[in-house]
Write a structure and sequence with these properties.
- The protein is an alpha+beta fold.
- It has one domain: 3-Layer(aba) Sandwich (Aminopeptidase).
- 29% of the residues lie in helices and 37% in strands.
- It contains four helices and seven strands, in the order βααβββαβαββ.
- The protein has a seven-stranded mixed sheet, sandwiched between helices.
- A hairpin with a 2-residue loop joins strand 3 and strand 4.
- It is globular, with a radius of gyration of 15 Å.
- The model has no long low-confidence stretch (mean pLDDT 94).
Amino acid sequence: MRIREAVPADLRAVAELEGRCFSTPWPDSALRYAMEGEGCTLLAAETEEGALAGYLALQCVLDEGYINNVCTSPEQRRRGVGSALLEETLRRARERALAFLTLEVRRSNAAAIGLYGKFGFKTVAARPNYYECPREDALIMTLYLGEGQT
């Protein structure tokens, strides 16, 4: 598997995967912004055959990192795609001297919560009724990267 920055030519594959995996998928304009917007990076995970296995959208504001979306193809789940995307994100976050990375995750998504926990993310709060289809709370999980952070 290879992790690289997504480019506009990837938009169709990313949008297709987004539509397959989420009940309220991002529109193409939001996916394009995740690739090209100020402080934004969309990482693509590619199989050895060149197929899109997953992606992660990261937005950096000053020394803060926001993981806005993580998606793994259903056929590629439990094969290390999410871990590879997070490892590359952490490498980039440390390179940029980010103070923290934070994200929201569905309260019921035990697999994702476990993955984020493996990387040191901790639940710091909840957002009631954050998600739609179905309506559900989000857990806010944060990983502090700077020295002396908690």
